[in-house]
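FW: tagging you since you asked about this chain on Friday. Here's the raw sequence from the shared folder, copied in full. Didn't touch anything.
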Amino acid sequence: MKKGAFWGFAFTLAISGALAFAEGASAKICDNDPTSSSGCSQSYYGTWSFQSSQSGSYNSDHRLSRSGASVNDFYVWKFPTLSSGRATLEVYLGSSKFTNREADYQALSEGWQEFEYVGSVNQYSAPSGWNTVGNIYLDNAKAQVMVTGKDYSGASSTQTGADAVSL
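HL: got it, structure written out here
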């Protein structure tokens, strides 16, 4: 009986250790104004003003959508190749200028046909710093994260912020 309990315990440890290893990879951060050494890049459609010397923002800068932007205004962070597995999407919010009450975030892993909804964040009331959006599964490829300028809460004349994201 003791021998069976030992092997059951050993098996449990082996499985939990394997899961911790698969999910324990370091997060990669991409900023809105990435350095070439980061391996990240960005693109956007619509009007996203660059605002520098912003206290509270990641690396002291961020992007801001025009007031009342639509779903056709979007900002995309492009990551280099990431390991496959479960990843948590977090966004850095630190500016009172971010007033979108329901900013939708989507992700794309190379090889997928389209962006997949991950979650939304109330940028207006979110605490300053890193905020969790949701989890996605990466397919050992380059990944992209997108936020649209549209405020899905129905509020008008709000502005969406784009600062740093982490996977």
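FW: The chain has a mean pLDDT of 85.
HL: agreed, and Helices lie at 2-23.
FW: great, closing this out.
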